[in-house]
Amino acid sequence: MRKIPATVITGFLGAGKTTLVRHLMANAAGRRIALIINEFGDLGVDGDLLAACGVAGCNEDDIIELANGCLCCTVADEFLPTIQALLDRANPPDHIVIETSGLALPKPLVKAFHWPDIRSRVTVDGVVAVVDSPAAAAGRFQSTDEERARPDHDNPLEEVFEDQLACADLILLNKSDLLDPAALADLRTGIEARLRPGVKVLPTRHSAAEPLVLLGLDAAAEEDLAARPSHHDAEDGHDHDDFESFAVRLAEIIDPDALEARLVAAIAAHDILRLKGFVAVAGKPARQVVQAVGTRLERYFDRPWKPGEARVSNLVVIGRKGLDRAAIEALVRG
């Protein structure tokens, strides 16, 4: 019996994973793709964005969203029942695409495909890691030699990033257009030196890569777990206590430019890793999407407000443990 292929899309917060999923759905060429979207916070933004993108196969009924946690921690409770339900459909998908949260470790998820109830029915075609090239080139995920020499050295961003690279079959150096050629070449050389043999690296802009390549890696990743080392291999489990998230709810915004300035100020002052959500702008019939990675922030309108839908603004804030929620909310609210 032919196994249904599954592709795991990993990458740190804001790297471009959801953009990649949208690109795949827009170029599915008739292939029926089931989507499983996982987010770290309890407010689902990525699934909502995909459902509003207007691409066939991105309707709300076609997207399974698992929020408030990372799949690598909830494999038995959420992921496996979800996969089984997809496989048991009268008309199962041709391919399954799983977008993990930006803080998820991909190896525990790949390992789950050995579960007896699904191992004969589905295989991991490949793990695709999306890299935020400007952030990586700026050293966001790398400790200095001085930091590593400290007895209490701990860099959870570096650990997550390295785990995502080590498990990947294909690396997308996304946002490569934001780097000059020399910086991009240096980044590529540095990342290639950390990869196992055979892993390909592709520079991309807006996560655009050939779908036939992305969904045709034929890696059977669950069969060579030993070649995909993790910082957590010696542990029975792991947690994400190094990170936290919360949502900020606002009324309609009269001046979105002023809000953007306050958001950038809050991000810079509190080293917020990721901020995203939807804003209700007074006098505008459509909701505005806000996406920020570090202090790089973009805004755009994605769809009209639905009849009866509450015109409120919801923003998700993600950062290292110990965020000063009160101070951040005060800055955002002005």
Task: Offer a few descriptive terms.
334 residues, alpha/beta, Rossmann fold, Hypothetical Protein Yjia, Chain: A,domain 2, 7-stranded parallel sheet, 11 helices, P-loop_NTPase, nucleotide-binding, hydrolase, Cobalamin biosynthesis protein CobW, CobW-like_C
Can you offer a commentary on this structure?
Helix 2 (46-51) links the parallel strand 2 and strand 3 (63-66). The chain is an alpha/beta fold and 334 residues long. Helices cover 29% and strands 25% of the residues. It has a seven-stranded parallel β-sheet with strand order 3-2-4-1-5-6-7, sandwiched between helices. 40% of the residues are buried. The longest helix has 15 residues, at 256-270. The protein has helices at residues 17-26, 46-51, 75-87, 106-111, 133-137, 145-148, 156-167, 181-192, 211-214, 256-270, 325-333, and strands at residues 4-11, 33-38, 63-66, 95-99, 122-132, 170-174, 200-203, 243-250, 274-279, 286-293, 296-304, 313-320.
